Amino acid sequence: MTLSLDTIEVKQISGVSAQKQAELHALGIFTVKDLLEYYPFRYEDYRPKSLSEVKHGDKVTVEAKVIGIPVLQRFGGKSRLSCKMMAEPWMFTATWFNRHYVREQLTAGRQVVISGKWDQKRSQITVTDYEFPDRGEGKTGTLQPVYSVSGKITQSWLRKTISQALLQFGDLIPEILPQPIMRKYEFMPRKRAITTIHQPEDSREGQQGRRRMVYEELFLFQLKVQAFRTLNRGRMDGMVHTVDNATVRQFVRSLPFELTNAQKTAELEILQDMRSSYCMNRLLQGDVGSGKTALAAIALFATVRSGFQGALMVPTEILAEQHSRSLQAMFEPFGITVALLTGSVNGRKRKDLLASLQMGLIDIVVGTHALIQEDVFFRELGLVVTDEQHRFGVNQRSVLRRKGYNPDVLTMTATPIPRTLAITVFGDMDVSTLSERPKGRIPISTYWVKPDKMDRVLNLIRREVVQGRQAYLICPLIEESDKLDVQNAIDLHIQLSQAFPDYRVGLLHGRMTPGEKDEVMRAFYDNEVQVLVSTTVVEVGVDVPNATLMIIMDADRFGLSQLHQLRGRVGRGEHASFCVLVADPKSEVGRERMAAMTETDDGFEVSRRDLELRGPGDFFGTKQSGLPEFRLADMTADFAVLEQARGDAAELLRDGTFWTSAEYAPLRSFLQKEHIFQGDLID
Ligand code: ADP
Ligand code: MG
């Protein structure tokens, strides 16, 4: 295969000038492959309909006959042309604005195909498009693709250019799916599928094309993650951790509590992975407060005692601070050094830190995402633990590997998901689950109140702070407006400060500098601040055991998993804790969320309900989960297809001939392009 579509630049398509090429680049289209995969997001229907089928105000295409004499009115520089038409059995008026020249063409009895908006009350169509079949014109009867365009690129130019590309290069569209799969699902060939998505003959054909390409996208995704995993195991080039059990037990005994059975099982699974020579990629999921941090600490201890360095990556600076403080306390007695690296560490301090890290003077580094990038080098990185929202995608792991590290990876999440779903979506990971919480926890009582009961909420705050406890008050989430979120927080902070003059009320929001945030959080940890008014920046991970009250304003605006996360900030100590949802939900979903929250505080049950309410696509929110964004596939609507694709990919990889048979060469070259393995793997 010498000529491949992803090496042919768009300027090779006739009609694409240098300027047009630049505009295509702005849409992310560089090669012919990119262009052909630039799929329409909907279709415009130019298939003629009967006027009895359409509603007032809808766009419609009708076949009609001229039955009246066209009337042209001019006003200012504008014109309006109307003519009586017949589309059996409807008589209506067709109106053209500013197209006076159409008048000559409207001869009595002539057939016209008209598209436009149907005004049923006046029996009128305002024409946007028209064609004369006797001139052999041809949009009629078709579905026209609608693309997302911008700049100087118009719909019609893009349609034309894609047709041209199909004409010139269509024969180079390679088949990639193997025959057994093509037969199993009765898929159309790849070229036809791509063609029909851009130029559907009818909607059935278009749907068949889409069905095939959706499957292909999901299948390739599954093949990628599963091949990565298989090869990782096969290659046995992970870090071999040599720490012995007695050493680990020493550390575990130093913890101020006994591990739960669930923690013990997960510990075993993690250490087993770390000791073996394949590269660990394990997801540790457990409800908020189930004690994931302790496991992270054990794993980090094990990597250091095996002679490597460890990194703990968290989504926010607040969390990084918190974790570095608690790890420091745990590791101090063992002479293990812990450093904190965030965006606010810079200058001389940062330089020294990076140098120490590279020389191996630092054992463990805690920080945000920047931790594993660019100028950060380790002497020998053995383990990366990522907390909460972070997750390494397959490609990020290849980047790490090319940097010379092949660390074991442990990902922790407090959004527990059913095991089958985890395996399907995170195809490249093993899963450990903490299904129980530490004994002796007092369950959190959750209440739902209407906003007009704010005085009672204030009394509740008073009751807790008088007893020496602390409270969070989370501000409403205003979609798409960080600015309004902040304003809300500021207003509520003023109100609460007035309501509680004898206590300190703190304010925390996303627009504060990292230094300011740290200062407020530190004051809250130390109980110098009793009430913390905050936007959702405290959502994940924050651990202040003396806080016993969580109040969430306009709670129905938050997703269920997020509400549960927020609730998880309390109930972490020996005192009884409360969560109050202040909301007057307008939607059914909002009411169901409130009901779910008051009925259960089990994270697995909450996420099951969340999944029901939202579907898997929304549930994961592709951006933050590190999942690829698919061009055509939709994680919610196409979830069943994803499951099928997962099974098919697994079966194919189990088949010994996958790595050798000529039939799978296109799939292997796809994997190679995705950097799943280096060229030397194929013989
Ligand atoms: P999460 O899973 O939400 O990250 P943490 O690791 O922050 O939970 O643990 C929550 C709290 O429970 C912490 O204060 C931690 O010290 C405590 N904890 C963890 N494991 C146990 C245990 N086995 N028994 C008692 N307390 C525990
Ligand atoms: Mg945590």
How would you characterize the overall build of this protein?
Residues 453-612 form the Helicase C-terminal domain. It catalyses: Couples ATP hydrolysis with the unwinding of duplex DNA by translocating in the 3'-5' direction; ATP + H2O = ADP + phosphate + H(+). This is ATP-dependent DNA helicase RecG. Among the domains are: 1-46 and 147-173, DNA polymerase, domain 1 (Orthogonal Bundle), CATH 1.10.150; 47-141, Beta Barrel (OB fold (Dihydrolipoamide Acetyltransferase, E2P)); 245-275 and 291-413, Rossmann fold, CATH 3.40.50; 445-600, Rossmann fold (3-Layer(aba) Sandwich), CATH 3.40.50. The radius of gyration is 31 Å and the shape is globular. With 683 residues, the protein is of the alpha/beta class. The chain is built from 23 helices and 21 strands. Magnesium ion binds at residues 292-293, 387, 541.
Topology readout:
Elements: H1 18-26, H2 32-36, E1 42-45, E2 59-66, E3 71-75, E4 78-87, E5 90-97, E6 111-119, E7 124-131, E8 143-146, H3 155-169, H4 179-185, H5 190-198, H6 203-235, H7 245-254, H8 261-275, E9 281-286, H9 292-305, E10 309-313, H10 317-331, E11 338-341, H11 347-359, E12 364-367, E13 381-386, H12 394-402, E14 408-413, H13 419-425, E15 430-434, E16 445-449, H14 454-466, E17 470-474, H15 482-499, E18 505-508, H16 514-525, E19 531-534, E20 547-553, H17 560-567, E21 578-582, H18 588-599, H19 603-614, H20 616-620, H21 622-625, H22 639-654, H23 665-673
Parallel strand pairs: 5-7, 9-14, 9-15, 10-12, 10-13, 11-12, 13-14, 16-21, 17-19, 17-20, 18-19, 20-21
Antiparallel strand pairs: 1-8, 2-4, 2-6, 3-4, 4-5, 6-7
Helix pairs in contact: 5-6, 6-22, 7-9, 8-9, 18-19
The chain binds adenosine-5'-diphosphate and magnesium ion (MG).
Magnesium ion binds at residues 292-293, 387, 541.
